[in-house]
Amino acid sequence: MKTDIEIAQEAKLLPIAEVAAKLGVPEDALEPYGRTKAKLDLNALRDLPRKAKLILVTAINPTPAGEGKTTTSVGLADALCRKGEKAVLCLREPSLGPVFGVKGGAAGGGYAQVVPMEEINLHFTGDFHAIGAANNLLAAMLDNHIQQGNALDIDVRKITWKRCVDMNDRQLRNIVCGLGGKVNGVPREDGFDITVASEIMAVLCLATSLTDLKARLGRMVVAYTRDDKPVTAHDLKADGAMAALLKDAIKPNLVQTLEGNPALIHGGPFANIAHGCNSIMATDTGLKLGDYVVTEAGFGADLGAEKFLDIKCRYGGLTPNAVVLVATVRALKYNGGVPKAQLGEENLEALEKGLPNLLQHVENITQVFGLPCVVAINAFPTDTAAELKLVEDKCKALGVNVALSEVWAKGGEGGLALADEVIRLCAQENHFRFCYDVESSIEEKLQAIATKIYHADGVDLTPGAKKQLKQLTELGFDKLPICMAKTQYSFSDDQNLLGAPRGFRITVRNLKVSAGAGFLVALTGDIMTMPGLPKVPAAEKIDIDENGVISGLF
To answer: DSSP string spanning 323-365?
Structure first.
């Protein structure tokens, strides 16, 4: 059996101008990065109207058995193109952290991939490096301001801005900097986030123009004064220089699927830390150029989809036409208590126990958000007819159809049934609504997410979080949407509670404002903004030969 990278390396890629031509994009609107990838000149596309249907691909809570959300997204876009539709795929860019850590790359799999796979998974067009540079410029200007007299009266104990690097490096979570005497800065505790957790990543992905990007950068809160007034990037006069560093990074990247269809890959915020969606700019561009836009949101629907719908759709003026909820029989049996080694065996009892995870996500999409939904079962050879029928029967009881997706093995051909159902759903009227009123109080919004989406009994705030809530309300940040930082493995804030747990409460231990991104971050559980490498990092298996051919990347 061929590996993902072997399949990708055997593909005959079209010149990027030919891919752009499928969308009616002229060559003078392309900024090529080599032969097979390019950035789009947004000025040339600015005045085009939106005309496409928007399809969100999400999933059940992730498990070690895998779900295949990106693979399904790629295969669905290819299937729509096979049916003669002008489909555009919109995905996030992979972070180097997971690539070299445990998760691996994020370019799809099998015969449903975006290419050039190695370049997309590694440095790509340099967007993440530009974000890191802008983030660290702001950090340097903040510390320099303090060193040069601290005219803003910043309290060094209340600095909230961290440096960042796009790598899993636990050694940098907590550091002491400014040592070595007066000329080397003011000694203080500091730390690093991974680049995808930087607020600048969220800002880039929620900005609607270069002007909006600069304004959002200026609003970012980096510290507080000794009398608890927020200090922003604009106060430090850093917003202009940061925007200059990001002038190319804000432009969407155009690549292709294995079948030569267009894919816009841009931005990459994590969904358990930030909002987990590709950029508004890329999605907006796809809506202008195609007839169908297929996009995905990170992790399970309780994280990525909720934030896509409550945050990205709010700021981007987006209304999805249909939602695809990806699941596997294997992952549902894992939710039903089957060990990973036994997932290939038929087990209807365990499947029945695990199905509530899927069904709760379905009900959230259809009942809470009012959107039409199809369940895509990502097929495995070990799935039995009885297991597939059980999933189909349970979903039909909720008024939702099931489509078997075989895109990993067959590419777009394996997604034709899913494409048919998606086209049918997109033709229906929907009643999209948000989970909460953004004008509600912070506590009311937290309660809405916890009770409606997670099905918790309620929310508890630690004493520290209550103090932060009071301060954020007094500062006027209480009318912002909520971005939950929560484990991706469970509806709850305990990763060990699988399925659809009941009788639990969500504990918020920290509330902070991301004023530039335009949301409040509520941290629950033990969420790391700087992951570490596993005992055996994926990086150990990656190599390159004398001809420049990379191996071991997946």
So the answer is: EEEEE-HHHHHHHTT--GGGTTS--HHHHHHHHHHHHHHHHII
